[in-house]
Amino acid sequence: MLYLADSVQCHESMEQLVFFEIPSPCINVCQSDNRGYCLGCFRSRDERFHWQNLTDAQKTEVIRLCRDRKRRRAYALHKARLEALNAERASANGRLALEDEQANDKNDTELDFGNFSLD
Question: pTM of this prediction?
Answer without folding.
Answer: 0.59
